[in-house]
Structure formats: structure tokens, C-alpha cells
Amino acid sequence: MADTYLLVHGAWHTGALMEPTAQHLRKLGCTVHCPTLAGNRPGDDRAAIGLQDAARSLVEFIESEDLTDIRLVGHSYGGMVISQAAMVLKPRLRRLVYVNAFVPLNGQCLSYLNFLQDTSMPHSMPWHPRLSERLGLFRLVESFGSHETWFTNPKLTADKIVEAGRD
After folding, report:
1. Domain with 49 in it
2. What's the domain count of the chain?
3. Residue 78 has pLDDT above 80, yes or no
4. Active site residue 76
5. Do 32 and 7 meet the contact criterion of CB atoms below 8 Å apart?
6. Residue 94 has pLDDT above 60, yes or no
7. Are 101 and 79 in contact (CB under 8 A)?
8. Nearest-5° Cα angle at 159, 77 to 12
9. From 57, 76, 83, 146, the catalytic residue
10. Cα 5 from Cα 127, distance rounded (Å)
11. pLDDT tens digits, residue range 9-19?
């Protein structure tokens, strides 16, 4: 059976921007989904849609597709979304993978994590190993290249995702 990956985009992006990386994963025999989250769909009122809505839309997508044994991959703000959705989705998940992503502790907001990044972690996104303890699914892709590497080198990104997604 092929590994199933679900790539979750960051703020101001769509699932379509994840497709170049998805194509490399598919060449490796993986099944890949790249949904566009609530708040980033055409016509969405971004001022009225927040993290809870984005996470709910991710959960709804996974449930509507009846996906299981998923390697859920978050990029940038997508790390916030997969962290939020993971508690509900845990029975359906195989692994959480964070690629240049925000990894919050329960109750932390993105503005706080941005503050940490700006003051003490200039070359990587904040994360915390306790998420691993809570879920037992956590994998952090070590920083490689810049935040934009996801878009400028999709093959490298796909290779790093597969490495982190292995059991």
C-alpha cells in the first residue's frame, strides 16, 4: 500500500502551490492530497475566518475523503493548522511532519511564535518536543534552505518529507 501524504499550505497560499512537491511524492509512489483550507479559498472573507475554521476545514476534508493512515505535513502556518486538527484526527494519522512550520504548544498563538522567531530563533521556526509526547506522531524536518525552499526546490522538499514520514 502506498504512503498517503496530505500537504497543508501556509497562510496566503493554496493547495495548488503544494502541487510541485506533491508531484515529486507521487513519482515515489505516494498518494498525495493538497486541499485548500478555509480562509484561503476564492471568495473567503479572511478577516472572518481563523485558525479554528482552517483546522475544521482540514478535518472535514479528511473525513469526507475517508482518509486513514495519513502522514499530515504542515508548512509555515500549516503547522498551526495540523497541530490544531491532530487531536481530533489522531486515529486517522500515521505521522505529523512539520516543514519550516510553526509548532505551537496548547494555547500558544502565532503572534507569540513570531515574536520568538524574531528574537531568538532567526533561522528556524519555533517548535516544541512535547507535541511528540502528547501525540507520539511528531517529526520535525530540520531546517534546510530558506522558508521558500518548499517552492524553489520541490524535489528536495519531497525527499525531506519522505525521510521524516518514515516509520
Report:
1. 4-165
2. 1
3. yes
4. yes
5. yes
6. yes
7. yes
8. 20
9. 76
10. 21
11. 988 889 999 99
